Amino acid sequence: FTKGMDSNSVLSTFAPVRTALDGINFSEGLESIGKVMDKGTLIRSYVAADMGFILHARHQYHWHTCYRPPQSVLAPHLGAWIAKQLGPVNAVIPPFIDIGQRFTLGEGEELKAFHSAGFLGNEFGPFLIPDPSAGLDSVRPPAGMSNTRFEKRNQLYDELIRQSPVGEFGSDYQKESLKRSMEQAYILLKSPEAQAFDLTREPKASYDIYNTGKFGLGCLMARRLTEQGARFISVTTEYEPFKGWDTHENGNTRLKDMKKQIDGPVAQLIKDLERTGRLDRTLVILASEFSRDMMVEGRPDAKVQEQVSQPDVITDMKNYGMHRHFTDGGSILMFGGGIKKGQVFGKTADERPCKTIENPLVIDQIHQTIYHALGIAEDAHYVVEKRPFYTTPDGLGKAEMKLFS
Question: Where exactly are the structural domains of the chain?
Fold first, then answer.
């Protein structure tokens, strides 16, 4: 990867709410990731925005769109911008694929708000795969739906679009974009590339390494889809309030299990991409919306209401690892795509509250660093409601060039 070349794809492994405030402790639970750290950069100085309240859905929206909610227009997801700007690598494979998140859980509507292409159009929105173990079902007609019946429905839909009054139910652009997204899905259904979604075709030895749960299998599917030409893939451990990484109690015990779910798959993904020669042209990002206070549940200036009760003296195991939302210093891992190998970037204080003290990075810089790796201009924008809407607010974000080789 040299200056002037652009990466082909981005694979974003999004694990909400990890605890790594001052680097990641590889000595317990993340040994496999530790063994591939010579292939990437550890950012220790990500600073999330102060938006009044440190809440998951608000910060996830900000992380994925680079815009603070609410917005007067529907802000596109990072993956949608990339899909729009660069187009598909393989016309059959959706350019933006999201793996692992359901919207039937708590805060489902808030999650939907940023899983969108917004004004860019439906064809650039995420192709959703809630469960990678059932990934092939995502590209098949529902049960009881024959191919003939499916084709007739598609024809009826085209006719409805043609007959609907202009401007009454969306602009012509949005209607055409929705139609193209339906056509793309239909092409995928009938293509041999759909086999990439079928994890049963993966050799058992490889499957077993990735099979640590939905996130691990999501990483496996992402690798297979990258091989078929997917442009942007997001894999999430899935956000559900007070579940998974959202550890407001039993944190010590739960984190041990959560680290097992991500350690092997992330490391294997990096090794597989390197083995096939794809790592240099695939940017892999492991990140979260914010971090955790490393010592205790609650801070006087945290601006978040009490969510659980912590005793003055901890005697019960469930009270170990009770950590409140923290925005002043977090970690991000980046591999491939021209990112410098074996680098540690930024620094947090050695003492609590462990705030960032060197080379702080905010979300505008992270997004523009990704766009730079892909060859997308800093001032990329579209005119919406007679005003320019940029990839980062007002087009002012700057890539952090020290992250690159």
Answer: 9-132+203-241+251-292+321-344+357-403
63 CA to centre of own chain: 9
How many other C-beta atoms are found inside a 10 Å radius of the C-beta of residue 221?
A: 27
Residues 6+ apart with CB under 8 A from 204: none
- Domain 9-132+203-241+251-292+321-344+357-403 is found in CATH 3.40.720.10: yes
Q: State the pTM of this model.
A: 0.85
Q: Are 178 and 124 in contact (CB under 8 A)?
A: no
Count CB atoms within 10 A of the CB of residue 233.
Answer: 30
What is the chain's length? 405
Q: Are 11 and 282 in contact (CB under 8 A)?
A: yes
Run of H or E residues at 161? helix 147-163
Give the β-pairing of 347-348 and 356-358.
antiparallel
Question: Each residue of 152-199: pLDDT tens digit?
Answer: 887 887 787 777 765 555 667 677 777 777 777 778 877 888 899 999
> Residue 58 and residue 46: Cα distance in Å, rounded?
17
Residue 351 CA to residue 201 CA, distance in Å, equals 49
